[in-house]
Known about the structure:
Elements: H1 4-7, E1 12-15, H2 41-56, E2 63-66, H3 76-85, H4 87-92, H5 98-105, E3 106-114, E4 120-129, H6 132-139, H7 148-151, H8 161-173, H9 178-222
Parallel strand pairs: 1-2
Antiparallel strand pairs: 3-4
Amino acid sequence: xxxxxxxxVDQLIVDEMQEFRKLSFAxxxxxxxxxxPDGSQRAWDLYVKTRxxxxxxxxxxxxxxxxxxxxxxxLAELFTxxxxxxxxxxxxxxxxxxxxxxxxxxETTTELELQPSGLYKxxxxxxxxxxxxxxxxxxxxxxxxxxxxxxxQYLRLPRSQAAGVRSSRRRRxxxxxxxxxxxxxxxxxxxRGRGSRRRATTSCSRSSPTAATPxxxxxxxxxx
Length: 224
């Protein structure tokens, strides 16, 4: 079996980095909700390979990670992401341990929550980030955030099918030429003319029985 040293890999490019978010770490806050110190074998395997490449072959450029959702469930996932991509920056600032990192950038709250037993119990959990400008300054040292507005400079986004249907309907509703518009107006005038003649014929047919009734009456009176 070949090892990663024998293969000669000098950089790892990983897409969907959120799949490796469960990296184990040591902490004294084991009862803190929103923090899961237990990791997965998948994340640990990637972390070990990244540290090896960074130490032996390609310092500072061992991993290129991409993700559309770097934080999915808990605030501790940002700490895990920084451990992957910028461990030296955390080491320089003395926040390489989770408890030190959380004390600087995480806010905890304690609230009463209803338990399955029907009783209320105080629960402490991470609720929000603090010192966000400092955290983003460190984070953006090694990351590049791409927004949808940035993609429009390089990509041509496809139009949705619903938008195409609406535009085709608008094109059908518009007159194609002045000739077709005049023909439609002429057809409307002809329909109005037929409608007026139909109303005149109907009025005449309704008045004819009234005129014939005296004649029939007079004929029947002349028989005796």
